Structures are given as C-alpha cells and as structure tokens.
Here is the input.
Amino acid sequence: MFYKKKYGLLAIATILSLLSTTKADASSFQRTSKQPLSNNTTVIALNQEAKAEFERGVKLYKEGDLKSAETAFRKAIELDSEFAEAYANLGSLLANQNNLPEAISQFENAVRLRPELAVLHYQLGVALYLENKRPEAVVSLTKARDLLKEQGKTEEAEKVEKAIEKIQAES
Here is the structure.
C-alpha cells in the first residue's frame, strides 16, 4: 500500500511496507509496498501471546483486513511493551493510512527499543519527511545510513545518502 499522494524520492524503497519480521540489514530497501519481507528472520518477542498476535496482524494485513491487523498489533504491544517489531508494523500500517503523527510515535518507540536496526531509523526518517519535518528526517536517515555503512551495506547506504542530499536541497 502506497501513500495516496506522490512523495517523490523517498518512495524509492517504500520501506513503510509492513514488516513481517525485522533484521539488522536493509533488505527491505529493495521491496515495493506490495512485496512482503521474507519470513527467514526472527521476531524478538518475549511473550508468546504477543508474538502470536503479531503474526496474526501480519496475516490480516496481507489479507487486506487493516482494521483487524491494527487491533492485533496493538494487542501484541499491550502484551509485550518491549516488542519493537510490533511498534514498527503498527507504524507502517498507520503511515500507509496517512496517519503520520501516530506512525511517527510508533516508529520512535521501535527505534528506542531496537536502535541498532537501520530499517527502523529509515522508517522514522521517511515518516518525518512526509510530515514535513525535514531536519528531524535528516537526523534519522543519517543514523540509518551510518548503521548501514557499519554493516557493510554500502549500496543501501548510498541510496539513503542520496535521499538525505535531496532533502537538504529542498530546504
């Protein structure tokens, strides 16, 4: 699901597609909003009920039942308040519904819990950009770029760098 408006460069990778799992690389940079991420990574949840709700939310999202998916992600967070991937998925779902203020809040929670994940910083940066908070977006995108470089993901880091440059040129 893509935003109803055209947003230019930062649509390069639509990482605001729903995360079915999160891993510490930027594989999602190459996905479109209709391509789910692979299921070959681990979801970090201490509470098995929360993990089950999370997985139910992913399934419901893929089936197009966004209202129920949102409820499932919120339930996963209620059951495990440290479940970063659930916050990220809820943020993605909300962003795809153009509810950027709440999406930003959810991405901030995810970043707070899993600051080592470049994709979370990138998601937050994109949402901030779409909300016309360019300076904050550059900060988040810069962190994503730096993490990608540390992980040896130079191609993805270069894409983020180009996005940063374009945002700075717009300001």
In short: The CA atoms of residues 145 and 157 lie 5 Å apart. Residues 1-42 have pLDDT under 50 and may be disordered.
